[in-house]
Amino acid sequence: MNKEFTPLYKHTLKDAARHGEMDEWRESHRANVNCVKAIEEAIRTGFNDNYLDENCAKSVIDKFGFDRVNYILSANTQLISADDPRISDTNRKWGKKEYIPKDNLRDQYLIHKHPLLVDGFISQARAEWNKLGLFDSSHCENTDEPMDYTKKLLVLSPNVLKDQYKTPEDQLFYATGGFGCDPSKLGTKVFGFFLKDGEETHFARGDFLGVIKDECIPDWAYDKLNEFEEYSDTEDEGIGGIS
Predict the structure, then answer these.
(1) What sign does the CA torsion over 162, 29, 62, 123 have?
(2) Where are the beta strands (DSSP E) in the chain?
């Protein structure tokens, strides 16, 4: 999927006005509303003989991207009454992971279709996401104290990657330094490179899910780390969570 999608603006209208980002907010809001309409149309045309077409969600994802579709669907799990059993507990739990600002405009993101059909659409969209085979927090070290990321193999949150780069290979990032590596420092920048191709850049500490577990590091990643010996001292410092 190489299509460029309108960037998703997750903050409120007030936030946009405060930070001089009204154009970004308007463009994103317009795309959000159009996404809702596309979901409603996909359900309308895709529901036949008590069956929702298996490509119903995929058709909208292909048009608007995972980030926007997941955002709209998460909003609906929060907008539809918590007492409505037609939205499954599994999908509600999934939807709660996404922060949706509680402003006066989010009601415009409500999908006006039967909750059972919305629930089915959400399940389809989640299945499409799972097909990507991405790393998540379960693949990362779980420690009581924040970890120092210096010379560690990190997992980027897929939310910071464009759809064409939402792959497990593109999630792996080797941290070389920056104040963001040290949880005791005030800075947030983590410098390093994408393990896949060695491209150097930086991200904020909050863009990472954590340090990948040793047992989750794929073989190709070990091979790549050996290719970048100038960035990693694998004997003394280790890779991933190895030390």
Answers:
(1) positive
(2) 47-48, 51-52, 153-156, 172-177, 189-194, 200-204, 208-211
Residue whose tokens read 């070990």: 222
Q: Are 191 and 182 in contact (CB under 8 A)?
A: no
Contact (Cβ atoms closer than 8 angstroms) between residue 238 and residue 174:
no
Residues 208 and 37: their CA atoms lie apart, in Å, by 33
Residue pair 59/42 in contact (Cβ under 8 Å)? The answer is: yes
pTM: 0.88
**pLDDT per position in the chain (243 positions), as tens?**
567 899 999 999 999 999 999 999 999 999 999 999 999 999 999 999 889 999 999 999 999 999 999 999 999 999 999 899 999 999 999 999 998 988 867 889 999 999 999 999 999 999 999 999 999 999 999 988 899 999 999 999 999 999 999 999 999 999 999 999 999 998 999 999 999 999 999 999 999 999 999 999 999 999 888 877 654 554 445 555 544
DSSP 240: T
Q: Residue 140 carries which DSSP code? A: B
Q: Within 10 A of 240 (CB to CB), how many other CB atoms are there?
A: 23
* CA-angle at 220, arms to 215 and 1, nearest 5°: 105
